[in-house]
Amino acid sequence: MHEFGVSRETESSLGPGWPSGVGHVGPAGAYTLDQGVPSPRVGSGHLPQASAGQVYGTPAPKPGPEEPRRSPAPAPRSAPPAVSSPVPVSAAPAPSAPTSGVPIAPTSDGAVAPTSGGPVAPAGPSFGPASVTLDADEHVSRETPGQDEDDPPLAMEALRAVQILNPSGEITMPRPDHPRVLCVANQKGGVGKTTTTVNLAVALALHGNRVLVVDLDPQGNASTGLNVPHHAGVPDVYDCLIDNVPLSEVAQPVEGIPNLYCVPATIDLAGAEIELVSVVARESRLARAIAAHPEKFDYVFIDCPPSLGLLTVNALCAAQEVLIPIQCEYYALEGLNQLINNINLVRQHLNPTLDVSTILLTMYDRRTRLADAVEQDVRNHFGTKVLNAVIPRNVRVSEAPSYGQSVMTYDPGSRGATSYFEAALEIAMRGVSTGGTA
User: pTM here?
Assistant: First the structure.
C-alpha cells in the first residue's frame, strides 16, 4: 500500500484541486486515499470529515469505556505502483458521486434508489431531474403555524380596532330618549372609577352619542386621561360649585374625540367641601349647573372622589343612576354596604329618583379563584344589575393615561378596549330597553 504523507503546515500535498471527503486519517497521522469507505456519522466518535483546505492531522480518539470498540475501517486500496507524484484531480471521484460505490438508477416513481442494495444516494443536480422522495416531507410540522393560522388572530384584532374607533362614523350605538346622568361612585380608591368613566365616555362618543364628563375628583385624573388642561388657573368645576359659573363656560372639547366634552378639576376643588358647608342648598349645586346647560347631552358621567363627602353627595343628587365599579378583591366588597346605605339616605331625603342601575366588575384576574368568588357573590347579590362584560387586568389600560389617551384610542385592539366597548354597548342597550334607565 502506497501512502501519501500530508504536511500539517500546508493545505494538502495532494494538489490544490483535490475534493474533500475522499480519504481518511490513518493511525500514523497520514492522509490515505479511500474511495470506498463512507463518511462517519455525526457523533460517532471519529474525526469530522475534512473540508476543502482543511486537514485533520491527529488520529481519531479511542472510544470511551461505555462505547463498544468499533471495528477498523476496511483496508484502503493500494495505489498503482507507477504513481510517484500527487494524484491528479481527475483521478479522484466527483464530489457529487456517492461514497459507497453502489451504482444508482431512477425508479419508476422518480426516486433515486440503488440497483443492488445500499443506502439511497442523495439527490443533486448531477443525477438529473430525479430526486429523493421522503415520507417525512408529506407531513407538515404543527409546531410552527402556517400563514392561514397566523392571519385570523391579527385579522380579528384589526377588525375589533376598526369597530371600536369607527372612523367612518357609520356604526352607532342606540341613543337614549332623554339625557342619562350617571354617577360613577365607590368610596374605595383604586377600583377603576376614573378609568371606567373615561373609557365608557370615549366608547359612547365614538359611536354617535353626545357625552359630557364632569371631573369631580380633586386629583383630576379624568382630565388627564382625556388630555384636558387642568392646571391652576384653568376654569374648572370648582367655579361652577362656588361661584355659580355656567357649565358651558367651563366645559372643554376633547381633542380627537367628536361629541365629547369634559369639565376639568384642579387642585382648588380640594377646598370646595369646606367652603360648601355654609352655602345654601349645598347638596344640589352640581344638579342645577347640569340642568342649566343649554346643550342636551345623551350621557353625563360624573367621576366622584374616593370618599363620601359633600362632593360625592352633590354627584348623587345630580345623577339619576349610580354606576359602581367593583374590584374583584375582598376589600372592595367590604365597603360596598356602607356605600349602598349612603345611596339609600340620599334617595330618601334628597333624590328620590336615584337608582343603583349598573355594577361593573373591574381588574378581573381569571387566574385566581378569589376573582371568581367575588364575581359570584356580586352577581348573587345584585342580579341583573351586574353587567355581563367584565374588565380584565390589562397593562394597556394602565399605560394609556401616561399618553393622555383612553385605552379605546391608545390600543383599540387590546382586551381592555374590547371589554370597555362591550360594557358601553351593554349600557346603551339596557338604557333603550328600559326607557332610559339601565
Answer: 0.65
